[in-house]
Each structure stands twice: as C-alpha cells, then as structure tokens.
Amino acid sequence: MLRVFGAMATCETSDSGLERTPSDRTFVLLAAAITGVVASNLFAPQILVGPIGSSLGMTEQQAGIISSITFLGYASGLFLLVPLTDILENKGSFFSR
Fold this sequence. Notes:
mainly alpha
C-alpha cells in the first residue's frame, strides 16, 4: 500500500522479513559518524585559516585560496569518482591486484 503525505511517500509491506537488525542500525550509525567526520574536516579549517595564514606569513587572500583549493579538490574528486563507480564494478576497482 502506498500512502502519500505531502511531498513524502511511504510504502507499507506485509513482508515481515524486511525488519532491521541491530547490525544494520550499527552500520547506519557508523556511516553517519564517518560522514560527519569527513564533513567537519572540510569545514572546520575555515575558522582557522586566518590565524594559520598569519602565523605562516601569508596574506588573507593566499590563505583563502588554499582553503578554496581544498574544496575544489574534494568537489572534483566527487565529480570524477562517483561516475567511475557506475562504470567499474565496486569490488573490482578497490580490491583487485
């Protein structure tokens, strides 16, 4: 049965074999924690760019460019690697050879 609430649709099934196990919940929590750490590693240095740049004798513009290059590198990695996983098999691309 499909029920629509506003912009979100939910689907109810009568199959009881689709219940989540504690290991599924643990995996979801672990994945959420890893995602939070990666995101904080991208955004936390933004606060420290000024003090670090001045301690290294850089101007604010130079320090800002380094911070921007970090974001561009991350974005280009996503832009190039995510489509690559559609082309190659996931296990073969990381665990082969």
